[in-house]
Design goal:
This protein is an alpha+beta fold. The protein has helices at residues 2-14, 19-37, 94-109, and strands spanning 64-70, 74-80, 86-88, 91-92, 117-126, 135-146, 149-158, 161-172. It has a domain at 63-172: Thiol Ester Dehydrase, Chain A. The longest helix is centred in the first third of the chain and has 19 residues, at 19-37. The mean pLDDT is 95. Bound molecules: ligand 3VV. It catalyses: (9Z)-octadecenoyl-CoA + H2O = (9Z)-octadecenoate + CoA + H(+); tetradecanoyl-CoA + H2O = tetradecanoate + CoA + H(+); hexadecanoyl-CoA + H2O = hexadecanoate + CoA + H(+); decanoyl-CoA + H2O = decanoate + CoA + H(+).
Length: 178
């Protein structure tokens, strides 16, 4: 279903359907919204975004990263920004890159069974355009750990071109923090 939703969003983003199809689609979506409202659950029960075995953790609106290397202090992977993430002129939206980086930082922060942490800052430099619909490389590693602070470095590259880089602070939560 998530794969279908992902494909659907890309068709929506990249399509210009006829008026009657737009109307019919709206009606179909409304019908599904009504059905899904009956299946509403609390956050702890939801499945969406909680399937690490699926691409994008089972989130249709997350760039689908495929990890090629994971150890306790670093990770590497490949990601393709689909049409859905288009900003303008064939380039991924900067917010999509921030979304990708925050998620990757979360993944990196919790490697090696480290305790729960949240993003304190996410400082991004956009160095070159990140094209959509081509495979990009993502990498991340620990710069240092100081008490509750984990300082990480992330990079997004297209071939030899560095598209974006970030320094991220993840802070270990104190007891009672959520
Ligand atoms: C989410 C976890 C999931 C775990 C799952 C594990 C499996 C992994 C699988 C898949 C991963 C996918 C996970 C997704 C990841 C997404 C992550 C997010 O998007 S999190 C949402 C955005 N972030 C917030 O909403 C934070 C809001 N801010 C806060 O809650 C607090 O400010 C917090 C916790 C960050 C720090 O607050 P304090 O009260 O606990 O601690 P204080 O004392 O202020 O700071 C501690 C140290 O950090 C420095 N610090 C804190 N914030 C700083 C900042 N912005 N700039 C510089 N330094 C900062 C301070 O100066 C202090 O440093 P000194 O110990 O004195 O040296």
């Amino acid at each position: 279903m998530i794969a279908s939703l992902r494909a659907f969003l890309n068709r929506i983003a990249g399509g210009r359907p006829e008026e009657h199809d737009i109307t019919a689609l709206g009606a179909d979506l409304d019908r599904w919204s009504t059905t899904l409202a009956e299946a509403a659950v609390e956050e702890t029960e939801q499945v969406y975004g909680r399937r690490p075995d699926l691409l994008g953790r089972g989130q249709a609106t997350w760039p689908a990263v495929r990890f090629t290397h994971l150890d306790d202090n670093s990770l590497e992977g490949v990601v393709t920004f689909d049409r859905y993430f288009l900003g303008r002129h064939g380039v991924a939206h900067g917010g999509a890159i921030a979304f990708l980086f925050d998620e990757i930082a979360g993944r990196l922060a919790h490697l090696g069974g480290r305790p729960m942490a949240r993003t304190g800052y996410l400082r991004i430099d956009f160095r070159a355009i990140a094209p959509i619909e081509v495979e990009l490389r993502i990498s991340g590693r620990y710069l240092r750990e100081e008490g509750r602070k984990r300082i990480l470095r992330l990079e997004l590259a297209h071939g030899d071109t560095l598209c974006a880089e970030a320094e991220v602070l993840m802070v270990t939560l104190k007891p009672g923090q959520r």
